[in-house]
Write a structure and sequence with these properties.
Chain A has 185 residues and is mostly helical. Helices cover 70% and strands 0% of the residues of chain A. Chain B contains 5 helices and no strands. The termini of chain B are far apart. The chains are: A mainly alpha (185), B mainly alpha (149).
Chain lengths: 185, 149
Amino acid sequence: MIFREVEDRDLIAKARRGDVEAYNLLVSRWERRVYSYLVRLVNNREDAMDLSQDVFLKAYQNLGKLDDPARFSSWLFRIAHNEAFSLLRRRRPEGELSEPSYQDKGSALLPMEMSLAVESALKRLSEDQREAVLLKIYQGFKFEEMAEVLGCPVSTVKSRLYSALDLLKTTLAPALLRGELRGES
Amino acid sequence: MSCSNYDWNAYALGEITGAARGEAEAHAASCAACREELAGTRLMLDALSTLREEEPPRRIAFVSDKVFEPRWWEIFRTPSFAGALLIAMAILVHAFARPAVDQKEIQTVVARAVADVQANYQKQLLADYEEYQKQERLNYMKNARLVRQ
């Protein structure tokens, strides 16, 4: 656990009383994680940035509805999940989801070959599977917290995650066999 | 216990703790197939961990957003509003606390002032007229002396 001079719950309490600076500090603590989750889920940087803004705005507006400040992270990611899937649903008729534009944006985000292989493999997953991996592997949520974020039973969470891990194992097998991971780690 | 009872994904993800974890480890020590499955899962998780966290292209800040503007009732708490309110109250108190003015008294004072102004004006007019006459007399005497010479 990372020691923090001021705990999130203190910042939440201050923000609820209208302390903008406290909320901005809270945002600065969480923006990277939320953005990172969103950018990999929606596969577009600008959309992820806009969604991040919306997520933190909605979180501020609804901070009074957060019953337990200790559950802030899963509550925040629940908002992010809703925002992301709202966007993904709007995109669907245009058929953008089958070919994510993330890689096409050009910038060499991840120079290491294994990272690129992982990035590519993640894109092959369905949205639900990818989200399960993002929440578990990259955000470190427990199964129960993931169930809260996704609004589904733990069994569904595990099913999505395990099927995603099976697919990733298959997709990443060639890269893993070439020993690229060992060379980089 | 058969191999199918062990959830190696959950184990590798840290979801299995306590006695169940110890039991799973004991089984893996004696089962090559499970060891291989666990190794494969760990290798894949290590690969996933190479992906860096994404950095937002710009900071998310809300200071200037509308939602952070003070609510209407919060305006009353600002120093400038308090100062303006204090001045307004002082004016009101002064207006109501001042004794009522008698209209007859005002008329008397005004009439007296008008009379004073008129008296002063007449006095000045008289003094100017006397000065004028005095100058006229002097001029006449001066002219008469010049004629005699």
